Amino acid sequence: MNKRVAFVNTVLRDGHQSIAATRMKTPQMLPALEDLDALGFYQLETWGGATIDASLRYLGENPFDRITAIKKGAPKTPHSMLLRGQNIVQYTSFPDDVVEAFVRCTTNRGIDVLRIFDALNDPRNLETAIRATLAAGKHARGEICYTISPVHTLKAFVQMGDALVGMGCQSVAIKDMAGLITPKMAYDLVRELKRRLRVPIILHSHDTAGLAASAYIAAIEAGVDAVETSIVPFANGTAQPDTLRMMALLEGHPRCPEYDRERLVRLRRHFEKVYEELKSFTNPANERVDVDILTYQVPGGMLSNFRNQLKDQGMAERYEEVLQEMPHVRAALGYIPLVTPTSQIVGTQAMLNVKFGRWKMISQPAQDVVLGKYGRTPGPVDKELLALVEKQSGKQVVSVRPADLLEPAMPSLRDKLKEKDMPFDDETAVLFAMFPVETERLIQGPPPEKPIFSVTPQPTQSVTRHYVMQIEGQKHEVKIEELAS
After folding, report:
1. pLDDT at 168 over 70
2. Picking from 29-38, 316-325, 455-464, which range would have the lowest pLDDT averaged per residue?
3. What does the alpha-carbon distance between residue 167 and residue 162 come to, in Å, rounded to a whole number?
4. Single pTM value for the model
5. Is the N or C terminus of the chain more exposed, i.e. has fewer CB atoms within 10 Å?
């Protein structure tokens, strides 16, 4: 209890994922690495989560090359990444051999700590990733996804901690992805985990509802070993509390850490420039306290992206309606925690419910949650919804570990890459498994545009028409852009 609390810094991963839709590029990170490394943080979170997807889809970067570049610039501090267990960094489960290959590639490139979680808190979905991390000689940090529901109790969270340590995790973190944990719950949960487990305990939260900083202080009083902070302007709001802010709140406390304020100020100035460069991806709503999140429970990492997605769908003005529908969807799906990929699944289904009517169109991922393909849900699935999905799909609920139903995939992935005249090493294979189109575009470049007609261009005006089609009992929306001279 007299030991100073440590900080994990998240600015290079969760900070910009939560504030700027994961759009920070590697060159924008490199000038900050010397100062970040010199500060002596417990860990630097530099990879994982949505960064692999964003690197391939939007930034034109090889995400594995990012690890190498950042590790070279900050070699002294342990680097961590966020891994979605059997989902890796995608939204579906992958065979064990793909998970194992991904972990090998990641650790070979320089990641030291793997933050391993499952969206449903189903330990079965963590076994392979934990085993592969330990086999690579790296640190397996098990994550308890914190949420609030009738089935998520202090006892249930502590049992999850026991299970993580039993599987070999060398530390356990409370992953409060939506910023819901109150100071009292933070104190009680940390105290109980510290009492039962003989491994470091970390608290990760977001300040979306304005609770994270006070919850951190309560957790520090209870003996937490580390908390996660970021650096403004990629801090506070939907991201983690700012590092200097937390130090000020702890001033005079016997556990207050000592981090070089001059370097932190210098880092703030650098990231203010980066923030300005990423301004088109930011939203002031992500940077203010929103107590409605206590009702909707949407994680900070999703909010900055979700607003953009609704805008793309022409539903920006229905944002509040979609948020209000999310608790209903979540309860019907067995009170699943809202964290990637389940937050996106619930968000998409809430959007469909608002757009077409409740359960008139059920997305395939939502059906898979109902059928147990993502794992065991914390609570029972709504009986009427289960009957509807079973009738529409003609399938029954899965009772085994979902990955047990998947055949090894690495050999076939390598064969596909060979057919495409692409590299067939493990790194390319695992990226192709998760993001085939984006990986092929990164390596081979976009296909050349071939004009169908050679005519003199005329001024055009585009008209977007929306059509709703019914196919095999399910409605599908089609958007067609027509060009008129």
Report:
1. yes
2. 455-464
3. 9
4. 0.87
5. C
SS3 of 355, please?
helix
The tokens for 404 are 């047990």
Distance CA 81, CA 10 (A): 10
Backbone torsions φ then ψ of 422, nearest 5 degrees: -110, 160
> Any bridge partners for residue 50, and if so which?
none
How far CA 174 is from CA of 39, 228, 305, in Å, comes to: 24, 11, 23
- Report CA Rg, the chain: 23
Q: Which of 313, 322, 320, 315 is nearest to 285 (CA)?
A: 320
User: What's the token pair of residue 271?
Assistant: 């990231």
Rounded distance between C-alpha atoms, residue 6 and residue 9, angstroms: 10
Q: Which amino acid is at 240?
A: Q
Structure tokens that stand for 53 in this block: 């997807």
**Structure tokens given for 411:** 């050999």
DSSP conformational letter for 59: I
Find out whether 83 and 63 touch, Cβ atoms under 8 Å: no
User: Tokens 């950042």, residue?
Assistant: 70
CA distance 242 to 251: 14
Across 76-85, 133-142, 294-303, 411-420, least confident range:
294-303
Quote the pLDDT of residue 481. Answer: 46
Q: How far apart are the first and last CA of the chain?
A: 74
Residues linked to residue 479 through DSSP beta bridges, in sequence order: 466
Whether the Cβ atoms of residue 191 and residue 162 lie closer than 8 Å to each other: no
User: For residue 333, how many other CB atoms are within 10 A of its CB?
Assistant: 23
Give yes or no for a contact between 142 and 167, defined as CB atoms under 8 angstroms apart: yes
Query: What residue type is 204 in one-letter code?
Result: H
Task: Report the alpha-carbon distance of residue 427 to residue 420 in Å, rounded.
Answer: 16
Which tokens is 16 given? 């910009």
d(CA 63, CA 207): 28
| Phi, psi values for residue 471, rounded to 5° | -125, 120
Nearest alpha-carbon partner for 201 in 154, 136, 249, 144: 144
